[in-house]
Amino acid sequence: MSKKMEGNEVQRRRAARDAQLAGDLPSARKSTTGASKQRGSPRVGKEAQLPHRGKQRELAEERAEQRRASQPPLPPPGRTYGGRGRPGYGPDHARVFEALTEAERRHGGEGVHAPEIARTANLPVDRTRGLLHDLAVTHHLVTELKGADRPDLGTRYEST
User: What is the dihedral sign for C-alpha 6, 11, 13, 17?
Assistant: First the structure.
């Protein structure tokens, strides 16, 4: 039989109860001998105490939260023009605007799709779409016609 250093079970329980009534944890007052000697119920005292999850899990959760917080948010799907500021009117803008007016003349004044404007301006389609966006939103020289066709064949552009 081992020697009882902190007293018998009744004494330890009384000391733990006194610590809880005072608002302290029994282990902080060293009135218990460790987890193996404490009560098994997680609801001890006035507040429900959840079982400890362990240091490794807590550290892993903290690291995962830090990684999530440090990553920039993902951009929405599709093409985005954000972060470009207000680009000035440059030679490429003039080239695309001239190509648009020329393509409109060929179509009798109707709106024109971006690939045709890109071919006329001799520029890549993605670059042309960005320049057309600048001309429409920033410089207000071009109008975007969305959903004008049935069935919809994509955005058409026309000069204003």
Answer: negative
